[in-house]
TrEMBL record:
Organism of provenance: Mariniflexile ostreae
Entry keyword Isomerase: yes
InterPro entries per the UniProt record, alphabetical: Aldolase_TIM, Chorismate_II_sf, Class-I_DAHP_synthase, CM_dom_sf, CM_II_prokaryot, DAHP1/KDSA
Alphabetized Pfam families for the sequence: CM_2, DAHP_synth_1
Gene3D superfamilies: Aldolase class I, Chorismate mutase
UniProt keyword Transcription, yes or no: no
Stated name of the protein: chorismate mutase
GO terms for MF: chorismate mutase activity
Amino acid sequence: MENKKEMRTWLDDLNLSHPLVIAGPCSAETEEQVLKIAHELKGTDVSYFRAGIWKPRTRPGMFEGVGALGLKWLQKVKEETGMKICTEVANAAHVKLALEHDVDMLWIGARSTVSPFIMQEIADALEGTDKPVLVKNPVNPDLSLWLGGIERIYKSGVKNIGAIHRGFSTYEKTKYRNIPEWQLAIEFQNRFPDIPLINDPSHITGNRDMIFDVSQTALDLNFDGLMIETHYDPENAWSDAAQQVTPSSLIEIMKDLKIRKESDTEEEYNRTLNNLRTQIDVIDNQIIELLGKRMKSADGIGLLKKQKNVSVLQSKRWNEILGKMVWEGEQRGLSEEFILKMFKAIHQESINHQEKIIKG
Ligand code: PEP
Ligand code: MN
């Protein structure tokens, strides 16, 4: 992936004055549904119309897509609206059919990126194509696996590459369907600044009410574009009903999003400042979330101590923690004074929690 500049051209060639927008339904359901949505998106900032034809569903027996038939409907979208078309491919047969139907861009889904065998099969089938290929992050937060997938595609001669950040699975329920782990996307950008990175707030949130916020965070972190699932009747969609927005909501969202362009130095300054501030906001949220988790573990210990009638303060254990944290802090350029202050405050909160449990 040495000649990275080459990768960027497909996005530059679109000559957009705003981030790339890809929109359309999660799944192509019927010809009428596909065309109705496409016509409502015609003439907006949407450059690529998306629709899933082959759907990777978590459990069998759900709607698994209309199959190759849907490619004809996508071709009609292109003819009638002028939008470019894109769809997900998950094996060599899909790639062959998509290329035969002149699909303008292909993406590889999160459940495919996890499998090196599938990625290799897809890469071989794509050999030498000049269509842009976007690789979604794998379902697990593994940057190497994501990069490895991209590398396989690149090695088979595909020069127009992009990546889609769609969040990561967790066992624990969170407010997201797939947690964004923004620092992983930031790391991706730092390592490969020339690979266009698109955000997919639909699969991150699983909830249309959160699409705007996640999209704004992505733009503040300098993402190159957004992929947003759009349906004229989201509630009755055959897949991902809770996360799709109507074309008119999408237009509102695009209007309200603040895009920070690079033009003069003042703007460049603001953009960089804003980017760094957003990174800090993301990290601060993580700190709070982790502290909350830490206190939950402390509560558990409080319960145990109550049952066994053991005292809250365990000095030996506490001094071990402090020593270790001072050392860890030093490795990261944090002063001993700061570490001691911070951990004493955390420890005090932990004691308060435990005492409440023991007395309660
Ligand atoms: C999709 O884009 O509809 C899709 C199936 O996404 P993901 O691979 O991110 O789950
Ligand atoms: Mn979907």
